[in-house]
Amino acid sequence: MTQHSKRYDEALKTIDRQASYNPxxxxxxxKDMAKAKFDETVELHLRMGLDPRNSAQQxxxxxxxxxxxxxxxxxxxxxxxxxxxxxxxAGADYVGGEDLAKKIEGGWLEFDTAIATPDMMSKVGKLGKxxxxxxxxxxxxxxxxxSAEDLPRTIEDARKGRVxxxxxxxxxxxxxxxxxxxxxxxxxENIYSVIDAILKAKPAAAKGQYIxxxxxxxxxxxxxxxxIKEVMAISVS
Length: 237
What we know:
alpha/beta, 33% helix, Rossmann fold, 9 helices, 2 domains, 4-stranded antiparallel β-sheet, Ribulose 1,5 Bisphosphate Carboxylase/Oxygenase, 3-stranded parallel β-sheet
């Protein structure tokens, strides 16, 4: 049986495990329960009505958080030729090709987002086992393999609070949506942007209920169940 901290058990007493909360109330409870000595991350967990073994029912994409993630995002760009200058001018923290690949193979992973131009993927591909495990592998579907012309916009989006979402092997999507210190309205707008992006990414092959359940949680806190009807009704467009 999993042992939880006294802080976790106390937080658990403040919520009704049988109830479903509207997003605004859930955000308030999440903020109240965040009592750790550090600024806890607020996460959205969605159980999807999809078969992760079915290639036609995969969900992957990106969402732009209006208020970011509350941290400095270190951007790495795999590029060569003129794209190097473009990436550097756009403010990428690290730009390179074979030199960066070798550094990463040696165990260096001091960055939060990796972007690549298409002509670099033959070199980046060999880093799949390393970057894939960390969720850092550039991927066209995630919008992180882009042309040199699109590098400035992609780098800027990463700085602002660009988050990726992907269906995992257990049919769940986990997405960070900000920090517990954020104002409630800012967390709400970030959450709505993520859910809106996931709803728009619904695959044509999806059958039945698309999002089966949704929970909001903090790094050290218990999950707060969201009212699925209100979640499904969300749209920021």
